[in-house]
Amino acid sequence: MVADLLRGFVHEDWVSQLDFETLEKVGGSFIADDLREREDDVIWKARWGDQWLYVYLLLEFQSTVDPFMAVRIMVYVGLLYQDLIRTQALKPGERLPPVLPIVLYNGERPWTAAEEIGDLITAVPGGLERYRPSLRYLLLDEGRYPDSELAGLRNLAAAVFRIENSASHEAMQRALDLLIGWLQAPEQESLRRSFVIWLNRVVLSSKLPGVEFPELNDLREIRNMLAERVKDWSRAWKQEGRAEGREEGRKAGRQEGLEEGQKKGEVTMLIRLLELRFGPLDETVRAKLDGADAETLLRWGERVLTAQTLAEVFGK
Description:
By secondary structure, this protein is α/β, with parallel strands linked by helices. Helix content is about 50%, strand content about 15%. It has eleven helices and seven strands. It has helices spanning about 1-10, 70-85, 145-150, 155-165, 170-180, 190-205, 220-255, 260-280, 285-290, 295-305, 310-315, and strands at about 20-25, 30, 35-40, 40-50, 50-60, 100-105, 140. α4 runs antiparallel to α5 (about 170-180), α5 (about 170-180) runs antiparallel to α7 and α8 (about 260-280) packs parallel to α10.
């Protein structure tokens, strides 16, 4: 997984010189001078020529922009170096190893924070400028990779990005089909299990809030269940909308008619689902819903489950 992340998304010449057969995970518990511990970091190292390269992955996925991420990265890298010195991991006279800090971001808005620590520090005249620290992290903004680019990669990290970016259940199913095909070898059992846990506990709950899913143990089961549940949800939504429509029709009386009342029920149901997923709707959105026909309402309703933004629900 880490090898695919580096091969597929770090487009720099030195990556081709890494010995991926030596890639191994390093303990990620650092204790600073104030004894505060960090347990949630994942660090890997691989041989790069005759020395080790440390790949520092910040896997506490950012879903919002942190304007001072560069400061956090500088602290984390400093803690890593401090730990290497304290544990005497360096040979006498040996320099500190290079570090590649990576931030994975899966938020909806484009990342706008500075990626170089120096850009956060006020520029001053004279010679003080030479003492300004310099450290850059590599940002991987998942949402900025178009599906057309990711689809051409046989890459596990790309599959993760496609699933997290999927705007429809069909797109998610296509990515799952690829994963199923790629993860068939017996030695990949642990990785298959990790994907299953991630899909069960993270992806489905975030993309389909309020929908109850059984705990499944196989990628194929998840793929098939997703297909069936989306059909069931669409059918149930339509039936519930019609039921509320009949109630609205009875309240509206003969003048408005059952058909108009049924449509009001479908609009009411869709408003509930949208607010559950995206929060309160403004009057512009409500007017858009009121002006739509029944077929358009159903199409929008089917997108609620997997859309990441309101704009995706109302897209063409």
